Amino acid sequence: LTDLIADAERELARGAGGFLRNIVREPGVTCSVCATAVDGYPWCWSCRQARSTPGLADLVVPLTYAIQGTQSATVLRHYKDNPTLSVRAQHARIVNRLLYLGIMLHEQCIEQKVGRPVTLRLAVPSLRGRPGTHPFIATARTMRAVNDAPQLVPTAGADHDRTVSANQFALGPDVSLRGHHILILDDTWTTGANAQSAALTVRHAGAEAVSVVVVGRWLVPGFANNAEFIRRRLRGDYDPHLCPVTGGDCPR
Ligand SMILES: [Zn+2]
Ligand SMILES: [Zn+2]
Description:
Elements: H1 2-16, H2 45-50, E1 59-67, H3 71-81, H4 85-114, E2 120-123, H5 135-142, E3 151-154, E4 169-172, E5 181-189, H6 193-204, E6 209-219, H7 226-233
Parallel strand pairs: 1-6, 2-5, 5-6
Antiparallel strand pairs: 3-4
Helix pairs in contact: 1-4, 3-4, 4-5
This protein binds zinc ion (ZN) (2 copies).
């Protein structure tokens, strides 16, 4: 297992070495939920708006930033949208390695913080119609992070307007999740509406605790003081051992 982790680290460093960045966890500097840059506030605008909704995730853990217009964002777009299969596969491998290391190295940190072991992982499918299995679900299945069932499926009435609602997703099959700590996996967090909607769905199914791991927190350099945040705080190369739950050492 240690060898598998070391292999994944080497592969990630080789494929995405210089352009991925660890997330920053610092009150007043980044949102206490989604780790985007804030200007002295505890939450970003989206997370503050959503806060009044009961049933949101107990903990949100982005692994990296997807900085629009840079390679970190290209990976998360092109692993599913690039017209060339080999390009999709190359980017999907990076997404796969990030998620694998995030789970292997830090799922226990999530369990520690939330106070219960993770009992089931579910991947969030895209709300946009795609033929076949969604690339992110395929990636999560490849490493056996998720099973074939139950799974989250977009409902017929799912919209794309970034509202947080338990009606965006359903469970297939419609099982009880009573007593579970569900770990929801998603590729990208923009407003958080998709992952938080999925959190509400599993809560309605009885989940006791809900955590979210997203591969990339989307960051637009032109927005607010993001450019300065990126320049000043996102300098070092990605270190998979730096804890995305604490922003520093793993809790012990
Ligand atoms: Zn936020
Ligand atoms: Zn950790």
